[in-house]
Design brief:
The chain is of the alpha/beta class. About 45% of the residues lie in helices and about 15% in strands. The longest helix has 19 residues.
């Protein structure tokens, strides 16, 4: 697994997630994403961040198999805290974050993208919060930043996905481009931001966060409380076992 961060000469920092096969991040992976965004905040040479991924899709959420092969609640607590740290780091990054999304963007991926400042997507990109299928809750806070309220509830309760092209009408996705043009499109809008005086842009980012009607950090933390309740009740563990193909002893189903 690798979370890489590269600062270009034009002030654009490119943060790339790569964790085959589907970019479902481990606990450490979420903390690594947070660290990369925190580094961008501290570095005054960074004017804007492009958050992207390599592989089959942008992000498939948490690594459920890691969770089901770890005894006790350490992996669950680690994933909760790691996701919280990563989402918070994107939202509170001192410079704008442009998300370049391809393929699947699910669960925790929506948490990252929903807290970004601008979204560019490829034609094959789609978004969803399938948490209810795994006995968890979360990222409704962030999906609500992408679609209207009733659409968010429908997607949440049904675990359906929505295409990036359909999000353009809601104004949450800036543009949809062919897959091989995604990086170019993301770098183009990032370049417009990077060309501005970073002192002004950093002040603007802080100001816009300050007038947000919802505290996304507290809202997401509230959601996580229900996930913990479902885990303590044994519901989430049962559903994750089915998804990961393991029994209670952590052995793979034949």
């Amino acid at each position: 697994m690798a979370i890489t961060s590269e600062l270009r000469a034009d002030g654009i920092r490119v943060v790339t997630m790569q964790h085959p096969p589907v970019n479902a991040l481990t606990v450490q992976g979420w903390y690594d994403v947070a660290a990369a965004l925190d580094e961008a905040s501290r570095d005054m040479d960074t004017h804007v961040v492009v958050l992207r991924a390599e592989g089959r899709g942008f992000n498939a959420g948490v690594d459920i198999k890691e969770m089901q092969h770890t005894t006790g609640f350490d992996a669950l607590i680690g994933a909760n805290k790691g996701c919280y740290a990563a989402f918070k780091a994107v939202y509170e990054c001192a410079v704008p974050v442009v998300a370049a999304v391809h393929g699947h963007c699910l669960g925790g991926g929506v948490g990252l993208v929903g807290n970004a400042d601008c979204i560019v997507a490829s034609e094959d990109a789609y978004f969803g919060v399938p948490e209810v299928n795994q006995g968890a809750l979360g990222a409704a806070t962030h999906m609500a930043r992408l679609v209207p309220q009733h659409m968010m509830r429908t997607l949440y309760f049904t675990a359906r996905t929505i295409k990036a092209a359909d999000l353009v009408q809601f104004g949450s996705v800036l543009e949809v481009v062919p897959r091989d043009e995604l990086d170019e499109a993301a770098l183009a809008v990032a370049g417009e931001i990077a060309a501005k005086d970073t002192r002004v842009i950093r002040a603007a980012k802080e100001a816009l966060n300050g007038i947000d009607p919802i505290d996304v950090n507290k809202s997401y933390r509230f959601e996580q409380g229900f996930t913990m309740e479902l885990n303590l009740a044994g519901v989430a563990d049962e559903l994750r076992d089915g998804f990961a193909g393991t029994d209670k002893a952590g052995k793979a189903h034949q």
